[in-house]
């Protein structure tokens, strides 16, 4: 009834899916990219999302799986 400790909205509570989409589309600005990176640093869920998409963390999964993921090839054919 009294949510006393709800003052700070945790970053991990809002998953920047729009940023993920933009990243996928290659239209992410440096600022947005940074925002996304700092979020994924704390949010394992989005981190995994990035891994799956294989964009930002491409270097981290290089040794993991090469091109098993179906990356979105050029949005406009
Ligand atoms: Zn997230």
Quickly list its features.
binds zinc ion
Extended strand count: 0
Element pattern in H and E: HHH
- Overall pLDDT, averaged? 70
Radius of gyration: 15 Å
* Structure class: mainly alpha
Helix content: 40-55%
Q: Please outline the major beta sheet.
A: none
**Fraction in beta strands:** under 5%
Which term fits the overall shape?
globular
Query: Would you identify the regions where 5 or more consecutive residues have pLDDT less than 50?
Result: none
Distance separating the two termini:
54 Å
Which hetero compounds are present in the coordinates? zinc ion
Number of helices: 3
In short:
The protein is an all-alpha fold and 77 residues long.
Could you characterize the architecture of this molecule?
This protein is an all-alpha fold and 77 residues long. It has a domain at 14-59. 42% of the residues lie in helices and 0% in strands. It is built from 3 helices and no strands. It has helices at residues 17-25, 30-42, 44-53. Helix 2 (30-42) crosses helix 3. It is globular, with a radius of gyration of 15 Å. The model has no long low-confidence stretch (mean pLDDT 70).
